[in-house]
């Protein structure tokens, strides 16, 4: 039989596992309210509080700061005290914070939005940690890719549902609905309680295997965090650039076409990457993502812009998946929750730090500046990581790691 580098049967094998299937379905629905929250907050501030988009942006920034601080802490809590005890404070927080947000003045929304970020239920970390335990190591790429594809689906549905609730019932009821749904999502994971640690393996002499207390942070892992941040820079550049370019073309009504092709190409890229029989170094994927982002601004019409975003969209999900896959290989299992939390922080900081720079580029030279700046920064980060990994002691060697992160 001829060797085929792409095998979609891995998805069928994952879906046949009831526990994995249940985790995927739960994660898909749990992410929808979190994806809807930013848009609903913006519409609530601008519409019902008669605020400005700048004020809404301040809330988005404070939430981002809260996520950046809270993600590693909550991941570490999962590692130390388990999923249920780590998630319970988040459930209590969202039940309290979202209703309170509907009855206070804008100034109080700033600390409230910060706390919402700190106590955001860490769906990303929970799902990735559980998958590293529930599936074999050679299936992680497929599992992570499937999770990325489902997250894209949640992203498509969440903002649309949030906007619908705001227009039909108002911003206040929409915020309360999101709070209730996030609490239900947390309760669902409390009930499922997916495993985040493998069962301890006793040593041959009957004694328990000693716990490795060494540090998990290494230069290769730091490069992966940097790559994660660079991925978000490219995505933000494409996101803001598309909107700005369509406004320049006076074709904002066609945003669904461009975003649709961008999202669908990302879904396709994620599916194909998950079906590959070999891993691709995330440094190479980020380099390709950056290089394909730079020329998107050449699209001078809606149809050409929509075609230019297909290659960069095709690389989005694989780049994010590959970084998580390699972190899982290089970090010991008992510290992966913290590592996944720091990866989430890298994504968040990459987006937060690049947004004003990309916005300034749009104001200064036009929409094409967003693609050039976002793609160039991502390319530069990829080159830094690539040259750094040429140093032998900084070269990632996941083939030397086992399921528990110890060398063979």
Q: Count up the domains.
A: 2
* Radius of gyration from CA coordinates: 21 Å
Number of strands: 0
Please write the CATH class name of the largest domain.
Answer: Mainly Alpha
Largest sheet: none
**Secondary structure category:** mainly alpha
Give the overall form.
globular
How far is it from the N-terminal to the C-terminal residue, by CA?
Answer: 33 Å
CATH topology of the largest domain: Growth Hormone, Chain: A
**Poorly predicted ranges:** 205-210, 398-408
SSE topology string: HHHHHHHHHHHHHH
Give a description of the structure:
It is a single chain. By secondary structure, this protein is mostly helical. It has 2 domains: 19-192, Up-down Bundle (Growth Hormone, Chain: A); 219-398, MFS general substrate transporter like domains (Growth Hormone, Chain: A), CATH 1.20.1250.20. The chain is 75% helix and 0% strand. The protein is built from 14 helices and no strands. It has helices spanning 9-16, 18-48, 53-81, 83-101, 106-118, 123-134, 140-169, 171-192, 219-248, 255-275, 282-293, 302-330, 336-365, 368-388. Helix 2 (18-48) runs antiparallel to helix 6, helix 3 (53-81) runs antiparallel to helix 4 (83-101) and helix 9 (219-248) packs antiparallel against helix 12. The longest helix has 31 residues, at 18-48. It is globular, with a radius of gyration of 21 Å. It starts with 8 loop residues before the first helix and ends in a 20-residue tail after the last helix. The model is unreliable at 205-210 and 398-408 (pLDDT under 50).
